[in-house]
Amino acid sequence: MTEFISTFATTMQLYPWVFVVISFIFAATIGSFLNVVIHRLPVMMKREWQSECNFYLNEYHPDIVKQIGNEHLNKPIDEFPAKYNLVVPGSACPKCKSNIKPWHNLPILGWLSLKGKCANCKTAISARYPIIELLTGILIATLAWHFGPTWQFVYASILTFVLVALTGIDLDEMLLPDQLTLPILWLGLVINLKGIYTSPQDAIIGAAAGYLSLWSVFWLFKLVTGKEGMGYGDFKLLAVFGAWLGWQMLPLTILLSSLVGAVVGILMIITKKLNKGNPIPFGPYIAAAGWIALVWGQDILNWYLSTL
Questions:
Q1: Which of 18, 25, 99, 172 is the one with CA 20 to 30 A from 283?
Q2: Are the C-beta atoms of 88 and 80 separated by less than 8 Å?
Q3: Please, where are the H alpha helices in 61-150?
Q4: Does an H or E element contain 54, and which?
Q5: 176-214 residue pLDDT tens
Q6: Across residues 29-41, what is the average pLDDT?
Q7: The dihedral of CA 228, 230, 233, 235: what is its sign?
Q8: How many Å apart are CA 40 and CA 34, to the nearest integer?
Q9: Which of 242, 266, 267 has the alpha carbon at shortest distance from 253?
Q10: Per-domain boundaries in the chain
Q11: d(Cα 10, Cα 268) in Å, to the nearest integer?
Q12: Residue 92 in 3-state DSSP?
């Protein structure tokens, strides 16, 4: 097995374009699964919250339960089957409930072959599905070209998959689930014990500094305005990049995310897609900025320092 891995790595180094193509195809396939995660994980979380609330009320406030009635307390919060997770049930059209054929689930090509419509009832299928598959493929192909067949590429790919899922969920639900942010935070600290991207010391300081920097801004803003400017998930996501890249990359990540967020927010207000005062998810901008710092952060810092 070791000899096979060594031979494969050597071949990929000799023919980098082959490695990039293989990475794109593999990542687009993973992108198809990420679509499932983006859609189903929030539903699973809401059901868990409902279950916890019901248990709390039944355990500590039976008088409230009597007033509400068990039939209302246990009323389903969504239209999906009782057994609902990342695997079950299989993919189906939300309107006619017909199962999606395996060949129609092929990344990008399946959506194109259907011309963006259900094969049975012709209901439109959101273009977001192939977009996420294509985006995931492009991001991983970029990592393959940049890092080559290395452990840096492997770990960066895992981080990228999680970032794509977090971005989609935050755009839909204004939510960055701990189920995704915390494991990837700990993974960043563990892999940097061997200095994959930065030293263990810089990773630990980076994780703490990433969290506390936005935490401080959050409380300062709340004390001044009485409003919450961001969620705790944003703190954890910035801590992720501190753990992966070290504290030195945090200023660049914060700057890039703030600039992109400000530009997008202004454009949405101008085009009347966002009213002033309405919240917008900040997680996607942190994710994009952190990913740029992962790939080109050192080059950007070197360029900036050379201009001083």
A1: 25
A2: no
A3: 62-68, 70-73, 109-113, 128-147
A4: helix 16-60
A5: 999 999 999 999 999 999 999 999 999 999 999 999 999
A6: 95
A7: negative
A8: 10
A9: 242
A10: 2-113, 150-307
A11: 48
A12: strand
Residue 86 identity (one-letter amino acid): L
* Token pair belonging to 77: 């919060």
Tokens at residue 201, please?
């010391």
User: What's the token pair of residue 101?
Assistant: 């054929």
What number of other Cβ atoms are within 10 A of residue 174's Cβ? 14
pLDDT in tens, 63-78: 777 777 766 667 778 8
Q: Please give the single-letter amino acid code of residue 259.
A: L
Q: How far is residue 24's CA from residue 157's CA, in Å, rounded to a whole number?
A: 11
Measured between alpha carbons, how far is 186 from 191 in angstroms, rounded to an integer?
A: 9
297-300-305-308 Cα dihedral, nearest 10 degrees: -150
Residue 152's alpha-carbon distances to 23, 53, 116, 270, 296, in angstroms, are 14, 42, 36, 41, 14
Number of residues that this document lists for the chain:
308
The encoded tokens of residue 58 equal 């039944």
In 10 A of CB 44, how many CB atoms? Answer: 16
Q: Give residue 5's pLDDT.
A: 62
Residue 255 near residue 238 (C-beta atoms within 8 A):
no
B/e letters for 186-213, b = 16+ CB within 10 Å, e = fewer, are ebbbebbeeebbbeeebbbbbbebbbeb
Which residues have C-beta within 8 Å of that of residue 68, sequence separation ≥ 6? 57
Average pLDDT, the chain: 88
Rounded distance, CA 274 to CA 262, Å? 13
Q: Residues 93, 118: contact at Cβ < 8 Å?
A: yes
Peptide bond into 89 cis (omega under 30): yes
Amino acid, res. 63:
D
DSSP state of 193: G
Q: Quick check: 149 and 14 in contact, CB under 8 A?
A: no
Percentages of the chain per state (helix, strand, coil), in multiples of 5: 75, 0, 25
